[in-house]
Each structure stands twice: as structure tokens, then as C-alpha cells.
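Hey, can you fold this one?
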Amino acid sequence: MRIAVTGSTGLIGSALVRSLLADGHEVVRLVRHRSRTGPQPDGSTAIGWNPLLGQVERDGLAGVEAVVHLAGAGVGDHRWTDSYKREIRESRALGTETLAVALAELKEPPRVLVSASAVGWYGQTGDRVIDEDSPAGRDFLAEVCVEWEAAARPAERAGIRVVHPRTGMVLSAAGGAGARLFPLFKLGLGGRLGNGRQYWSFISLADQVAALRFLIDRDDLSGAVNLTAPDPVTNAGLTAALGRALGRPTPFPVPEAVLKVVLGELAVEVVGSHRVVPRRLLDAGFRFAHPDVDSAVRAAL
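Sure. Predicted structure:
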């Protein structure tokens, strides 16, 4: 199968591309730097696009059967200044619209667009169990996710099956939150964040990639699908799992007031709670390799 991927150099995108190539699929990467287009050392091909200017090399998308759209500015990469919040929003909404319009205008559009979203769609939900039927939240990330998903509508109107994987925290030592947390825990400097009672809906990197491929293949799935492990864990629970896996104490809690000083508005997400379950994924028969936090942490390490 010929599959196009945006965000292919990120944590999830690079793992997905490796998986697809290993199984003999043809991968087309969408990259923003024209100097990096053409055949790639790993056997994939790169074509150019400028998501903010609405530009895509449409000829390079000819024959593509599926598209996985993962590109977007990292939510935790910087403090949330007004300018960076605008970048977070525009990189998702404008990028998705650019891609969706380009796909809709192809002579032979792909059969599926898997267009990323996040569990932030639900807002802060405390300890309530949340599935895909739950309403959208009203905070900044929830508003971003609502716009993000809506931006894919041109593809949907063109008859393309559109799936929105609402992803939780991907546990990996190679990137994301794990790349920041794990080294501290290895040094014995880890601890809960805030009161530790907030739920973090996580998923292992291996399960994330497997679930994305599942969404590509399952013609009966469209709309929102939560990509989280079936058993969400509190921050204190994740802290304990990391301590067990590494054989290290976890004695250093970080008070919420300190997080607000260090992280600014982003601290709201760190101490916020999302107890999200993957009901539609489970109902469709997906099997998790790492369904609980201990197996996910071991896989990440």
C-alpha cells in the first residue's frame, strides 16, 4: 500500500514509518524543507508541503491509498506565550485544512485520512471515565482539538473516510514526556507532580503505532477513536510504576505552585486530569500489547 505521512520525523511518525517500511509498504513523507525532498535513505520518498500557506505537491500524492496526518507544534515544547499558543493552534487547524483540501481535489483521493487529535478534546474531566461519546471541553487545548478535527471536513465531504485518533500520553524514552521524566527517575529524583491524583491516559509507543495501522485497515471505523490504554492511571500511579521498573525511590514531589512558576499556563495540563478509555478501539477488537502501566513502562524503558 502507498501511504503518506506528515510529521514523519516526530516520535510517533518515525516509529510508524519504520513499521510500515518493515512490512513492505511504500511511504511518502510530507516535509516542509524542499532540500529534503526526493528518495530517502530508508527507502521512503519525500515531497514538499507548506501547511501554513496551503501548498502541497499534489503530484507526489498520486496513487496514495491512505494518509496519516501527525504534524503539529509540540504542546509541551515551550511555555505557552500568546505567540506559541497561536502556533499550536495554526499548525494544527491550518495544516489539517491544507492537507484535507489537497486530498479532496485529487483525481483519485485516498480511501482514508487518519488525522491526529488528542484527549485534550475532552478538557479537564477529573476522575470521571470518558469515552468517545463525551462532550468537548472548553479550555485552550479542547478548543484547539475541536478546530483541529473540524479542519478535516473537506476530505470527509469528498467521500474520504476520516478518523480522528484522540491520543493520550505516549510513553517512550525516545521522546515526549517520557524523555523528560525517565532520566530524572533513573537518578532517583522522580516524584509525583502536584497532588498526584490527576489521571494521565497513557499508551505505549508500540500500541500507538499498532492502533494507527488498525485505523488505516478498518473500513468500519471513522470519526473519533481514543488511543489510550484501557486502564488510565493517576500521576502517583505512574510515579510508582516508574520507581518499580527502575528500582529507584520516588521521594521528590513537585508542588503545583512550583509547576505554575516553571511551566506557566502549561501547568494546567500537567496537573489536569483526563480519565479516558478506548471504548471504540476495544469494541472493534483491537488488542493492546501493553494494556497496563507496568507493561507500558517496561516497554518504554
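The mean pLDDT is 91. Let me know if you want another pass with a different chain boundary.
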